[in-house]
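User: Predict the complex.
Assistant: Input components as received:
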Amino acid sequence: MFQSNITVTLRKSILDPQGKAVEHAIHSLGYTLVEDVRIGKHIQLSINSPSKEEAERITDDVCKKLLANMVMEDYTFTVEKVR
Amino acid sequence: MGAMSKVKFGIVVFPGSNCDHDAYNVARHVMNQDAKFIWHKESSLGDADVIILPGGFSYGDYLRTGAIARFSPVMKEVVQFAKNGGTVIGICNGFQILLEAGLLPGVMLRNSSLQFVCKFIYLKVENPLTRFTSQCERGEVLKIPIAHGDGNYFADAGTIASLHEHNQIVFRYCSGSGEIDDVANPNGSLLNIAGIMNEEGNVLGMMPHPERASEPMLGSADGKKIFQSMIESLVLS
């Protein structure tokens, strides 16, 4: 069994208004060294595949087809064997 | 289609659609045409002349608005219907589904205010030469409500240039007197875009709700012009 940990975020070129709002809140807490906040989604998949390569291929396909909208979002993921 | 027969509206119902009955009411009781609901698990659109993807929160807006609804079984038929030149209108969540399905270009971002906005707005008819707006004048200002949290239209520069080139920008948010500026933009949409169609002109997506503004007692009957345009285009064809 493999587990994919996927992060989907808005593309750098797209303004993230949620991130901006949180950034303002962080600044109002006094943490002025924090310069940029981006908010995204964390998605976990458990994949019963024979190999890590297959699990990575499935994860990549699912990201492209469903989990991320490539017009506005980027995704990254890691895959690890869990048992 | 003969002049005597009624236009058949097919209104797709997804889990979480909530403007389906409003659309049905306008098609059937205000416009006096035929209308039927099409459950999202259906594998046929039957004999529908027009497909309406209504507003609402299909699948609870999980993941992204419209992202899951586009994989409903009926959407294969809707895509085929559109590719064959059939008239398809997506309203609000229906527009978001059309974007996710790739029938229209671009995406919807969260409103720039981060607020859900529910109010009457004004929109300007940028292109009256369509099967959705033939009953409007060029530059006419329509009063129609919006109700959405993700209506901030975005597309890359190439897509926007292509929309311009093929007159696909149908509606833009404006003031009551027709000025298109930031003040009149309720959600941050690029170029105040409120509605676009595909290059072929048979698929329209719009965030404002014409089905909620087709009777004077609801505050405006301007939305009726969009239904009337679709009916005329089919009856005269």
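Residues 2-81 of chain A form a domain with the Mth169; Chain: A , fold (CATH 3.30.1280.10).
Let me know if you want any component modeled separately.
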